[in-house]
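Bug #77: duplicate submission created two jobs. Keeping one. Sequence:
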Amino acid sequence: MESGVFDRDAALRNLGGDVELFGEIARLFVADWPGNRAVIADALNKGDAASLRVSVHSVKGAVSNFGARQAVTLALDLESACKAGDLSHADQQVDALFAEVDGLVSNLAREFGA
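Kept job's structure:
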């Protein structure tokens, strides 16, 4: 079942159908998100494209575990811009990524009691 933010069925397929593991990974991601969000915001505020790229790459990998296609796409676009050293639209890109991942976190927290 796809929630609009993440695809539960795809995530479960990626995890061999292990619902318990899915819940554990979801709870860890929800717990880690505020810190990861702060690191991204700090790198953006400093104009540090290299650090921003590394942090966004990490988030991209994490959200891909949940079949969160839109979040993956946003992270990939931002990561590519950072790699090119182009932060001209980074504020908007980070805002969009944050909105999408915040929605994912809310959905995961609701579903898994995280």
